[in-house]
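Hi V.,

You were right to ask for the full record rather than a summary. Here it is.
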Amino acid sequence: MTVPQELVRRREDEEEPGIDLRRYLELFLRQWKLVAMTAALVVGAAAVKTYLTPPVYRAAAIISIEREKLALEELGVGDGMFTMRDPDFIPTQIRMIQGREVIEAVVEARSDDPTAGKGKDAEEAREARVSQGVRAIAAQLEVTAVPGTSLIEVAYRSGSPKDAAEMANAVVDAFVTWSRRSRLEQASQVSKFLASQVEQLKKDVQEKERKLAAFGRSRDIVSMDPGTNVSMQKLETFNRDYASAVAERVNKETRYQQLLALSPETIADQDPAVIAARAEKQKLEREYAEKLSVWKPDFPAMKQLKERILKSQTYIESASREAATRERERARVEVESARKREEVIRGVLRSQTSETLGQNLNAVEFSNLRVESAASRTLLETMLKKQAETEVAARMSGMRQPTARIVERATRPEYRFYPSYRQNLQKALVLGLFLGAAFVLLVDFLDRSVRTQDQVEKFLQLPALGVIPAVGSGPGRGYGYGYAYGRKRKAAAAPASGKSNAGGGLPAGEETIELIPHTNPRSVITEAYRAFRALLLLSRAGGVKSLVVTSAVPGEGKSTTALNLAITLAQLGRRVILLDADLHKPRLHTILGISNRKGLVSVLAEGVKLEEILQKTIVPNLFFVPAGPMSPNPSGLLASDAMGSMMAEILATFDYVVFDSPPVQPVADALLLGAVTDGVVLTVLGGKTSREVVAKAKTKLQRANVRILGVLINNLRVGSGSFAGYGGYAKNEYGYGYGTRSEDEVERPDEAGRKS
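Predicted structure:
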């Protein structure tokens, strides 16, 4: 029964999307030595590198940073303190510890002579030295939060255990000092502004009171009742409004200066977007911490989650800056509005003053001076009160600032932190196994030879007729054009003719692949040939009676295949004729120990009768026709009318006809024989012949309209591929499921000295 090409393609399409795990497992088991060697090399290199790598020591100090505390009185709730929970608090403090100002302070403190040298060159040299020191310390500094606490671990790595401990302690000391200094600087900015405003107001009040007194003495004015003059009443009203506008402007400017002095994070504490973003980031961090116990940090999902956390942090910082910018801009707008209102009231006041002066210039002047003096004093009192309130708020703000203190100072480490033999060797082992597997896959990808029946059906799109495993495992053994392989035996069957041994010149006592279905019918190889015979007879509708055994190139075992196939067909009790049609390099007569003086050439060229050259063999029911003498035109003989007449006679006499023909690529003999038979069997040397070579032979046969019955894989080495269900051959090649083995089949040592 012919295997339709559509069925082969359908099977290929069905198997294409899946991954054949069994094939890869067999591949890795077959190439385990390569994987082991690669892993051993990588582990060895890692061990040497670990041994040669200078040791690195790690010392860590722990600091505590208190969170912000707010007085309840500020919120109008009552007495006591409470703590604000900010998910960005610890990450912010970690980033501050790693800031350039803190590390520069460490570099300056550890410098031998930080003030040495003066001038531009000395300053540039100092800056270069500081920058280099900052980069060196930052590269070895590691700041992390202690899980479940508000503590922060500050670690430093160095080749010296003493230096590691000293640097870790120096960093925490510098951070504590910097934190205290920054709190004081922030609180003093607003106080300086208010102090300058108060001093200026004091001078204004003194100057206006002096002018008022001088004007009263010069005009003999002691007092003035504003209730008697409407203009004076308006003037006083506008003066009060002007004083109020000035006070409002000063308050607005004070608030604006406070906003400029505060950090964006403090300003944006009450912003809804920032609060929501911080809550979302805290949620993502909890999710990341939970998944970290299951997934590794380099897992794609963890990387995505980490990116979301970083994006959330970036958004919080951006939103804080935007909120602070909006608040500062709003305060600036309010300041500008207060200034405009002050200017407008000042203009109205001037107008009213001019009107009043027309009525009573002296009274107005005196009243104006008195009102200005009173307004200035009122404003001074307001500013003094604001200054006192600001100082109190500054002190409370200082109390709210994070207070850093050292919980545990770093001590000199006793053991090195890096490199770790255990971790490095474990990583090297994993890497070595991965590289070994990659090398195996690369070798398999670059291997274009035919090894399995699946490759025959998938890549060549031809029916696979079976796999014939190799008998021996020694290098250089094989069969086909001038080579053979085998296994030594204690006893070997000699050819019945007695003229030569069955191996065609091989020493007695060595079993060869040729004639193995006759000499050793219980071997696994014989069973492989029988399976090949069964598939071959079912490969064509109506059965196969005549066929040609050929190959793409020489040396692929076509002659041995033709002989052993003819033997298995004869073992069915049918009359089988084997014709050596390789008129270029005949070999079958040597294997069978039969004379080649007359043969196929004699029939086709000289008209000799078939009965005169037909030879009996040691195999019952198997007859043989040798090639005969050399001919100058083998292709012409095979294409002659005599060949057609002989084929008709053979088909009428014998049940099966088997031709051994030359390879397809060098000559066209196989094409001529395939045209007068039921089809051609292509033999392939397993693990050696490339797919491209077989594909070219296939194309050549198909262009000649020759039916290809299938492909047989020959001489496939043990462990070199799948044998389509024939199991393993490394331990026992004989007694293939037929009960007790014969005496001379037990305890047979192979060529390497192992027992079968």
